[in-house]
Fold these 3 entries.
Entry 1:
Amino acid sequence: MTDTLLSNQANIIDVTADTFMAEVIEKSKQTPVLLDFWADWCEPCKNLTPILESIAAKHPETLVLAKVNTDNEQMLAQQMGIQSLPTVALLKDGQIIDNFMGVKPESEITAWISQHVELVFETEEPVADDNIQALIDNKEYEAALAALLELPAEQAVWQTVDVHLLMNNVEAAQKMYDALSDEQLKTTDADQAKAKIQLALVDAGDELGALQQQIAQGQVEPAVQSLLSMLQQDLGNADVKQLLIASFSLLNDPKLAAQYRRRMGSLLN
């Protein structure tokens, strides 16, 4: 893992017992240090370290990533009280101020660091998300997918699912959803991705297909209102019911979603 391209950055370093005092303790008095304890045999480490490298690469002036190979530095790991891999600690002013174990998504780790450190992005970082969204808005989906491949996987996953669905690549979107980590599955983004996939799987006719497309484009509430009107006229329409259920999770307001669920329930009772 130490031979990745990002490891060539000045603020991403490998640390040994001999260099620990200078590269971690003393350096943390000038710049916060993210300390990553890993091992070659540790599969979660192989998922986490690239995420940490990505974060460090985005914040070269305000964060240092120091990596400790515990297979080579067993004594150092014991002295630091490491009991599980991967373990990540954050040091400031020569002291550990926080730590976590296991794998977390990049967004969650960045939020965790930001509780203690004011992160500053590298000035030359492109506004990639805005450019990609412009491609999506212009229906240049192949170009959007190519651009998303250039982003860290944690950052790109939700937009990639959306683009696959816009291209009617439901199977590809489902495969991405199936590959999500346990932590990702706990997020609201995962709930919405699941709902969008379920929505795409609804076998809708012409009239429902138009509402299905409306929902996919983000105009969820007007489509839900139209669907409720259709259901009122035909309470036995299973396709309308299925589309309604799939759309509720895409309403960003939980209270609003609950309100429409109750309206559907009152129609059917």
Entry 2:
Amino acid sequence: MFRHSVTQAIVLQSRQFGEIHKSVTLFTPGEGLVAAVAHGAKKMGSRLRSTTEVFCLSRVFLYEDPVRRTHKITDMEGLRLFHGIRASLARYYAASLWAELILKSFAGGDSARPLFGLLRESLSLCEQASPETARSLSMQFLWRYLVLTGNAPDLDRCAECGRSIGADEPLALAGGEGAALCLSCAGPTAVEVPQAGRRYLAHTARLALADALRVRLDAADESSLRAVLLGLVQGILELPLASPAVEAMTARVPMGRRRA
């Protein structure tokens, strides 16, 4: 039996399919990632042309063939097209990073619904963001992604010896799983977390996302923390993040400070 459904969705990928169609990957709160074909979306007069662009938020009408396990988009009602994101390289780089992370983690598994809310809010805040705010948004997105998916390290306790790590005491993250370690337990390859960055994460985690963006680090600590968060996410994924956002960011951001 064929099935019709309606859902909100954010377009994470959009590719030409044939001469006039598009193949898109949708991120939905209920089903996670959904691959679908938008027939005729490349036509100049198609109402699907603009709503199938990356990062667009729409109400999507889907037609599923349960035998072939395929989806077709029959209609899309654009809710937020986020033109401002595509008008700025800094904003586009940030949103591309978030999209790639969601794609490579299969929408965070069981965390798809709260992760969808995080992405929707992040895109809204990013649409008119300055380059500095876009970078802060990426830090917040990475950390909140880790928290939502249960992968954030406990920054208050050493995962090796179990000792409480004081608020002003340095800590490091182990490679791979990114466990937090006191400096006595950290090996030579552990990446040290800047103390200001640790305090920043602890403080902003209690704030709404828009309020967290008002809290700023100095340039050096921000650069170090962004690098630490990127390394932590990639270690958990066990995959490199190859989006233009990551390439642009890592080209000018030093990788985390390593202990001698």
Entry 3:
Amino acid sequence: MDIRTAKIEVVRAGRALVEQGLVSRTWGNVSCRIDGEKFAVTPSGIGYERLTPDLIVVVDCNTLDYTGDIKPSSECGIHAAVYRKDPEASFVIHTHQTYATCLSVAGFKTLAPTISQQASLGARIVLAGYGMPGTKKLRRAVMKVYAPDARAVLMRRHGALIAGTGREDAFNRAAMLETICRNAMKEIAEAHEAALGNAALTAKHAGTSSSGTIDVIASEQEDFAVFNSLYKAAFKRWPGLNAVSLLITPAICAQSAACRLIPALLDDFAQIVGPDALVAEANAPAKAIEKRKGRSAVFLKNEGVFCFAEDPSDLEAIQALCEKNALAWQHAGRFGKVKALSLIDRYIMRRWYLTRYSGKR
């Protein structure tokens, strides 16, 4: 494949990942093999909606050298290793799809694809051990289990890696993998999807005008009084905020009712929300707001999660991560005590995100 065509394929795939809900913001990455020596891959820290062929990076499969001033994805080493190990693989996508990520925490052995699903997937599903994003440890863990007949890899606490003979093949596998994982946690998934389809479950604040007045967009719901008191307290305490929201779903309410501290089970939660989040009483807004402690969310006991963002575009990502972390907690609880990420990994990833990555889009 010529370089220009490969770059166009990567751009199309990046946008499709967002449209299909397999990633958001700059999460995940995509690559397309050019030939036996090179591949085209998404850049580091640039949102999929901004991608153009000129922003796609060409990387050497053997040395990881790249051309130009734009850095490739921090996971380009995994893509290169796949292409070296599997000559038939021509397209690789790394997603943060919800159900596959949940199954990477606990319950992997409950996956039971039907014969038809196995045929559609065309690959075994394997589970890779944990490694922090962008590290050699993660690369080694993935390549330890990856094989030409095992092109669907759950990356523990992180997401999924899927390889295919082309863009369409890789995307079909990603979709089928999510269906299989959804079936393994069907009851939880159905409650989650019902919540997402119910507009009365969320109340959002869109920002402040230049005059300082607050423009609230909210659904008709009993919980608006809670939200009303919280956002006023939040903007009084942190005038620099541009968006806040109250998210109410079954998974989040269950987790907030059962825990005094919400730890990061997933590494993207640790990065973007915080290494953990405190649970507060909703009837004391000022005290609840003080429990933020630099995190992007405060959970309200039995009520939901109150999310904070300096950039309004971050708000949906923060909400999605709180929900995904809660779903993973709820599902993992079926298999015994839920184990969080190690404390040191959580703090390293949070610091790394705040100092090196949070300004990128």
